[in-house]
Amino acid sequence: MSSSEVVSIPVEEPIEAVEEQYEEQAPGISLKPVCTFIGPVILSLVFFSMVGVLVRVHVNRMFSYPGVPVFGLIWVQMLGCFIMGMAMRLKGVLLSYSPALNTGITTGLCGSITTFSSWQLLLFQELFNTFRSDHSQFRNFLGGMSVLTTELGCSVAAIRLGQMIGDEVRIAYNYLSTRNAPAGTQISKVETTMFSAETSGHRDGWFAWDKWAKFDVILAAGGIAGVIASTIVVALAPRTRSVSIALLFGPVGTLLRWRLASLNTQPRQISRFVPRFLAGLPLGTLIANVLGSAILAIIYILQIGVVVRPSIASCYVLAAVSDGFCGCLTTISTFAAEITALRSRPSMLYAGISIVVAQSFFILISGIYFKTATVDYRICKDMNG
């Protein structure tokens, strides 16, 4: 790649960032051009993706106990959506430090904490009563609707709450920046622009080490250290092997979702290949969520031993792909932000298509096997104790 070649960097961010310009983002600071090198972005995504996997796994386990009033997954989704809401309002501040930091928090951290595929799996389990609860099919439907509405409603509410808190934090940041500015300094307001394929600007190659910002170096070091540490833990700590392997699979899903996000900002090019009513939707997020859900449906039937009885080693890999790759490939945080940013009809269409298509894959892949097989227990869960 030549040093003068212009390369677009897709960044998965809510389309609301395009529809409205945030004012008073970060007065008193000099905002770097909205462009970056692909090296810091990738390493930032790796680092924050691994942090997101750890947060999701441990928060989900924390709220998974007998008699829990609500399922643990909802707390994971709300946490990631809350952080996303704050990041949306503090975008100018994050960009002023490093575009890679902004991408890492929104696409890497929030996108990896939340997961669309696990939500769809839980919805499928309630609708098909895979837990073998003693109640009617109508109550299966009620259970599924409970999962559907509570997850979606709480995620959207968490986005809004994060935006409200983010506004207050931004105001406080602006006040402190103005107050601490030297006398006679001209305070200018920084407007946030969309860091996307259309506004990413020029970059000199992939790395250009001498032009990295301080935060780029820190994030890159974190990403490299995370990969090395996870590899060592996989080899030396068998009891935590499933989580450690998931940490290695997670960044792969995040980077794939990051690349697919370029479809969110290219509706004109896409309109030639898809129906018009789909061209205006965030197809990158839609494809990532549906693809991850389909893969998780396959993993689910392998984990319960319907096709073949899995070994201990394969259980570790299946759990890693489920929690790591599928969990990071799919996202609720961006999904919730997008449906709140779209107009009412496109929003309902987008949410409906995402959920219906994902459930169709679960029914076609897992539902048929579940209804025709005699094994209905999670072998991998039993093996892992």
TrEMBL record:
UniProt topology in membrane: Multi-pass membrane protein
Descriptive protein name: Uncharacterized protein
An example Gene Ontology molecular-function term: fluoride transmembrane transporter activity
Transmembrane stretches, start-end: 37-55, 67-88, 100-124, 217-237, 243-260, 281-304, 316-337, 349-370
Function: Fluoride channel required for the rapid expulsion of cytoplasmic fluoride.
Catalytic activities: fluoride(in) = fluoride(out)
Provenance organism: Coemansia pectinata
Protein family according to the UniProt entry: Belongs to the fluoride channel Fluc/FEX (TC 1.A.43) family.
Compartments (UniProt record): Cell membrane
Keyword terms, alphabetized: Cell membrane, Membrane, Transmembrane, Transmembrane helix
